[in-house]
Amino acid sequence: MQNPIQPDSAPRDRSHHKPLNLVKNKKGKFAYVTVGGLNQVKVYARGDGPPHLVATIPVGHLPHGIWPSGDGTRVYIALEMAELLKQLTP
Length: 90
Prior knowledge:
mainly beta; four-stranded antiparallel β-sheet
């Protein structure tokens, strides 16, 4: 099965992996963190005080990268073993 992001024949550049990314939208400011060993994404609210956990989301096998959309309405998670992206709506 070909990787939908890049062909299998292309070299795999792992420098773009982001296990943490920040999202700001009308609901507030959040940090999304992939936890590959647990197949989860943890969501922390960011504000004036210390960040606090607001959600733990099961996402599939080995999440290893996370990127928000420009407007903060979607978050994309790369699943390494499934070779696909999963979309979350914050």
